[in-house]
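Obj.: predict assembly geometry.
Materials: sequence records (below).
Method: joint structure prediction, all chains together.
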Amino acid sequence: MSEATEMTAILRLQREPFDAAGEVAALTRGRADIGAVVTFTGICRADENGEPITALDLEHYPGMAEAEIGRHVEAARARWPLLGVTVIHRYGRIAPGEDIVLVVTASSHREAAFAAAEFLMDYLKTRAPFWKQVEKAGDEEARAKTWIEAKSSDDSAVERWKSA
Amino acid sequence: MSEATEMTAILRLQREPFDAAGEVAALTRGRADIGAVVTFTGICRADENGEPITALDLEHYPGMAEAEIGRHVEAARARWPLLGVTVIHRYGRIAPGEDIVLVVTASSHREAAFAAAEFLMDYLKTRAPFWKQVEKAGDEEARAKTWIEAKSSDDSAVERWKSA
Amino acid sequence: MKVRYFAWVRERVGKAEEDIDPPADIATVSDLVAWLSRQGEGYAYAFENPNVVRSAIDKRHVRADARINGAKEIAFFPPMTGG
Amino acid sequence: MKVRYFAWVRERVGKAEEDIDPPADIATVSDLVAWLSRQGEGYAYAFENPNVVRSAIDKRHVRADARINGAKEIAFFPPMTGG
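Observations (raw structure tokens):
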């Protein structure tokens, strides 16, 4: 492996919160070939479709989630000159204001870093086996949980990577 | 101003390094309406066009740089439903591995955050009055400085925002 | 063959996974969906709109016409909403 | 009227800024560039390819046909390379 194409890929699914800054530092530390780092953080909002929520609950398919994300990290590497990629996706109960997902992409130049981060997010939304439930306000007994429906805008977003 | 459209804009030009994580925290702290944060960090590489460099030296046009970036932050706000924007651009001598520029965009959803961050970076590259000089390796006397030439790929990148 | 269910498919079927032994003429994922739909009310409810339910064989997305021969694990779930 | 020079335009002209008083028939930025080019070797070198040099009036980008009447500060510089 030549030094010029050295690429770090980190992929983790976890219940615990993550430290975005620490992950960026881990990806860039000791390297002077990275010129651009794009970080996407998905955060739990306090509302869903205009209604207040108390939490999100994320279910996932262990094993397949890692495999599916790993395949898309490989596809991103094949498509853009990346020097580093980190994907961390949480599962379990997540309160408003907490982070849900982190994608970090590093490259020599900004175009590849932006494109790969968007590509990975579009695929995470539509292809990674995670399902979100919202927990609506109310006391312990009254808390209604509802599965979030997939958005057709997410399907259109992922389509753009197929034609190019 | 309604709470739903509350937007924080931070714009700084400085000689000192910045703390990307601290800036993201400042933008998102105490809010639960932000669902997506995109961070772009531009970093000084140890090479320019394949040749090793010892530093970049950034000159800027004080007053105009702030005004020009401010106008593009306003244009981004008008175009996408942003909840926060931070732009920090350093000037002066910057060593390989050090950060040069930071753009943070926050929105309810990822599409706006990604698009606004790319828009701002494309404009910073081509319209913000900054000029980069590279300092090539050598002893104090022999250090040659060369102005970096503008890239036509950056001009094409900025064109895409005009047709849409 | 192991079958796994996720999200509201799991809730409707009433279990997260089970081992099944479908008849030999069940060749594809859509054959299996039709067969499962006849195994009880929960299954019928879960697969009431088979076009909505997604499937994976051995942890890879597949279409309804994929052959199940040799599969170790087949999973059914709603459209994904991660990220 | 104050004129400011940046990057290699500044280096070629040999100064960062100066106050000038061009003749009354100098109406546009390109008139001013032509007039400055006649003020010495450094100026001629800085503006040898006038299409490359960018200009701003009162801290806003302008084209070469912009009128300079009323301008407080005119700046000349190479294409920007920030970000």
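Conclusions so far: Helices of chain C lie at 7-13, 29-37, 41-46.
To do: check interface contacts against the pulldown list.
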